[in-house]
Amino acid sequence: MTEVLRAVLRYAFCEIGLNRVQAEVFRGNDASAKVLEKCGMKYEGTARQKYFKDGVFIDAAQYAIIREDYEGACEKKTS
Fold first, then answer.
1. 29: domain CATH number?
2. Is 17 inside any structural domain?
């Protein structure tokens, strides 16, 4: 999954020219949060009780990365 996210970020910053990419995971989903952090995304906060699933409100951990934090985003692009 880490490789997929890296490819998505490369496309978002190098091809589309986005300035910011954000994602969120259910609070407690440590494996997914680790993937986001491995790819340089930073934890920005928690949206409390954002989702309602199986009769329970669930918090969402929010992550983002901005262009200037994305190291070497367009190194290979030469045009």
1. 3.40.630.30
2. yes
Joined tokens for residue 48: 């409390």
Phi/psi at 5 (5° precision): -65, -40
Q: Can you give the pTM of this predicted structure?
A: 0.84
Token pair, residue 25, equals 């995971």
H or E element in which residue 48 lies: strand 42-53
Q: What is the pLDDT of residue 77?
A: 45
pLDDT digits (tens, 9 = 90+) for 26-42: 999 999 999 999 999 99
Task: Give how far Cα 38 sits from Cα of 26, 27, 57, Å.
Answer: 17, 17, 27
If one counts the domains in the chain, the total is 1
Cβ–Cβ under 8 Å, residues 50 and 58: yes
- Give helix then strand counts, H and E, for the chain: 2, 3
**What is the rounded distance in angstroms from the CA atom of residue 55 to the CA atom of residue 49?**
12
